[in-house]
Each structure stands twice: as structure tokens, then as C-alpha cells.
# Entry
Amino acid sequence: MIDVLLMTNRRTSPGGPTGNRTWDLLAGSQLQLLLLLILFRFEISGYFPSDEFGFTAAPFEKEIWKVADDLYLKGWIRVREKFAQGELGGDVNALSYFRKWVEQQHNTSGVIHTSHFFDDNYGITKLPAPVLKCIKDMRPYRKKRLHAGKKLIRKDLSRYEAYSKAEELRREKLVDEAMVQDY
# Structure
């Protein structure tokens, strides 16, 4: 019997690699997922007290810095007494762990009230910030003292307003109970 393929000018190629092709695709997509970079912004509101030397929110700043640095995140962080905000970038797993850490409030140096993550940007090829940096409060001592004084004045003013409202309600109640009118 004559082989038909030999009589034609058609060339045959050897077979491709054998194996489970779906496994190869799955492994490739997992690898792409691990290499996918994300950039997002966050805002955390809460109370982060100062340390024994008077540096504003230094313990929480060290704590959030350590978590971000251990996860090899890049970007910037700003921490003050009432809030923390920043823009961080890194791989998917690291940023999801950072978000989970913030939302579960695993902090020992302050109290997180609310956290908000926004401006998620997936699929970045290169992160804009090459390092993780912390933006410090660079106001001079005089300005810090002035702002602290204004904050105390506002606090006292709100306390006095609450006292005057309570006194006014007390007088109205007294007038209503005694049925006496003040002319």
C-alpha cells in the first residue's frame, strides 16, 4: 500500500507538548495576578495620641509605617492626631492585606473610627513613587502652639455653649413647673 502523505508535497509538523493546557493557563493567570500592581488612596479618621516626647501621632505613624514597609509598599503616608491619609502602591496581595489590617483595626497605638479607600487603580506597570516616605508635620513650634491654643479656645467655647444651653433649659423648666413668667 502506498502512503498518501508521501505522495503529496504536504509537510507535517511534530505534535505539540502534551499535558493539561488548562493548568498552564491557570498558572499563567495566577502569575499575572501576583505581578499585578495596584495604587490606591486611603483616609483613616480616629484618635492617635502623641508619644512621651510630644511628637504628634508618632506611635501610630511608626506602626502603620512598619506594616507598609514589611509589605514592600511604595508611596506616601501622612499621620496627624485626628487622621491618617496616604497613597500606597504595590502588588495585589500586599495591598489587600494592608486594607484588611486597617479595617480590622489591628493597632495598639490609637483608635481607628472610620477608614475609606478610594481611587483604586489596577494594572499599573510602574509605580509612581519609588520608596515609602512619611510626610512629617513641618510647622514651626510657634505655629503649632498657636494652633493648639485655638483648638483649646474652640473646646472651651463649645463647653461654655453647652453649659449655657443647659442653663437655659433649666430656667425654662423652672418657669414651666412654677408657672411663673419672667417679664
